[in-house]
Amino acid sequence: MKKRLDHTESLSTLGQLAASIAHEIRNPMTSLKGFTQLLYETATDDGKRYLSVIDDEIKRMEEILTEFLEVSKPTNNKFDFLEVEGLILEVANFMAPQALMQNIESIIKFELDNTCTIYGDRSLLKQVFMNAIKNAIEAMPTGGIIHITVSSTSNNKVCIEIRDQGHGIEEDKLDKIFEPYFTTKSSGTGLGLCHVNRVITSHEGTIEVDSVVGKGTNFKFFLPIHDKN
Ligand code: ADP
Ligand code: MG
């Protein structure tokens, strides 16, 4: 089952309002956290158990807020010429410890004739590939291989492919994975791919997803190649 995405998914005014509320919620949460910690010091054993549940829930709220703010942040700020190879190697190295801990090996292949330059925001694009690799890791709880392949297309695009051997995505869910808050994970936020889609769209790129349940998932990111000269 294949799905192609090339529409712009921008945050509405309502989204911007939500982002400012998210900011406001942070302050009272910091004070909740502080007082929870203070109470912990003098609490009984039962009290400590309840307080650590509260503490975990506050951490989870913070995680959701951080990801939400990341998604609603305006893009197109720090654009520059970037070499794809270095970018991908950097991300793969960063994610390697997390993969190894889960018995996952990453195999990276560059199928390019020349070095390939794109025009984009380095840190946003890194987040894109980190999110995709993180999802691949989470889809393979018992280990496996992630194949990362970088190639060019005949229409002057670079294709970054991230293929896993995980549980795959059911056909009826494939339409929803880029929606904010759609998650099938007990501790997921469902914001990763929404952010990914937004960043790729702002870079005039497209995403293709190909998935077979029980076999694995293949994400392809296409970005325009830019000549520096
Ligand atoms: P989260 O990872 O927090 O659940 P994402 O937006 O990153 O949120 O992903 C949304 C959903 O898409 C996931 O919950 C999962 O169901 C599905 N998904 C994304 N990538 C993969 C993958 N590589 N393999 C299987 N399912 C995936
Ligand atoms: Mg994710």
Helix content: 40-55%
Oligomerization state: single chain
Please tally the β strands and state the result: 8
Main-sheet strand order equals 1-7-8-6-5-3
| Beta-strand percent range | 15-25%
The secondary-structure class comes to alpha+beta
List the secondary-structure elements in sequence, H or E.
EHHEHEEHEEHHEE
Bound molecules: adenosine-5'-diphosphate, magnesium ion
- Gyration radius, to the nearest Å? 20 Å
Distance between the termini: 40 Å
Mean pLDDT: 89
The profile of the biggest β sheet is:
6 strands, mixed
Description:
This protein is an alpha+beta fold and 229 residues long. It is built from 6 helices and 8 strands, in the order βααβαββαββααββ. The structure holds adenosine-5'-diphosphate and magnesium ion. Adenosine-5'-diphosphate (ADP) binds next to α4 and α6. GO terms for molecular function: ATP binding; phosphorelay sensor kinase activity.
Secondary structure: elements and pairs:
Blueprint: E1 2-5, H1 13-42, H2 45-72, E2 79-83, H3 84-101, E3 104-111, E4 117-121, H4 122-138, E5 144-152, E6 157-163, H5 171-174, H6 192-202, E7 206-212, E8 216-224
Parallel strand pairs: 3-5
Antiparallel strand pairs: 1-7, 2-4, 5-6, 6-8, 7-8
Helix pairs in contact: 1-2, 2-6, 3-4, 4-6
Bound molecules: adenosine-5'-diphosphate and magnesium ion.
Brief digest:
Helix content is 47%, strand content 24%. It has 229 residues and is an alpha+beta fold. The structure holds adenosine-5'-diphosphate and magnesium ion (MG).
